[in-house]
Amino acid sequence: MTPVQNLCYNEKSECMFAFLFFLLWHGFITITYISRCIVLRILGIDPGIAIVGFGFIDKQGSKLTPVQYGCITTESHLDQAVRLKIIYDSLGQLIEKYKPDAIAVEKLYFNRNVTTAFTVGQARGVIMLRAVQHGLTIGEYTPLQVKQAVVGYGKAEKKQIQEMVRLLLKLSEVPKPDDVADALAVAICHAQFSGYYHKLNEGLRK
Fold first, then answer.
1. Cα–Cα dist 95/90, whole Å
2. pLDDT digits (tens, 9 = 90+) for 128-179
3. Per-residue three-class SS string for the chain
4. CA gap 19, 35 in Å, rounded
5. How far is CA 130 from CA 66, 93, 171, 181, in A?
6. What's residue 68's pLDDT?
7. Residue 30: CB partners within 8 Å, gap ≥ 6?
8. How far is CA 150 from CA 65, 84, 100, 103, in A?
9. What is the mean pLDDT of residues 184-199?
10. Which is higher by pLDDT, 30 or 42?
11. How far is CA 32 from CA 37, 39, 96, 100, 197, in A?
12. What are the catalytic residues?
């Protein structure tokens, strides 16, 4: 096993970057080699008030591996504040258990239903707050960006996106409900746009 094999990426780990810089400085390894060894864990989120889809994936070089996925649900008869607290608490438990390095959240656009936009926006705010409290890097992506990253086509249909998620993550079937597949798509999008080399170089300069 090489010195940096299966090393988890964490921007706050000064010791790790010092070690990597030492290896780079003395010519033992290259940045390309490091990028193939470092594992970046990403949490993708499809925000909602009734259902919050989530999906954890690991990115190692060009390889994407599913870790865990599912959804957080809240009952419609509960007060709004209670539902938000359920999302807040549940997300915190997931973050503490699976320890992601970054979180990716889909940006929301509503043209007609203002009430839905407001309630989902509240849930999204709770999600962002939880991510900041855990010191996670946050990526926000439009539906267009997600489609382009996953399918390569900005006008792709939902079924096309879901099938590509299944293929890219080598799943036996498309995750259900749709919110879960959407969350994994957002995570894949972040893996594509996360600027792997930029993050690594930025950390090494600290």
1. 9
2. 999 999 999 999 999 999 999 999 888 889 999 999 999 999 999 999 999 9
3. CCCCCCCECCCCCHHHHHHHHHHHHCCCCCHHHHHHHCEEEEEEEECCCCEEEEEEEEEECCEEEEEEEEEEECCCCCCHHHHHHHHHHHHHHHHHHHCCCEEEEECCCCCCCHHHHHHHHHHHHHHHHHHHHCCCEEEEECHHHHHHHHCCCCCCCHHHHHHHHHHHCCCCCCCCCHHHHHHHHHHHHHHHHCCHHHHHHHHHCC
4. 15
5. 22, 10, 29, 22
6. 97
7. 24
8. 15, 30, 20, 17
9. 78
10. 42
11. 9, 13, 30, 22, 8
12. 46, 106, 179
Place of tokens 């993550």: 169
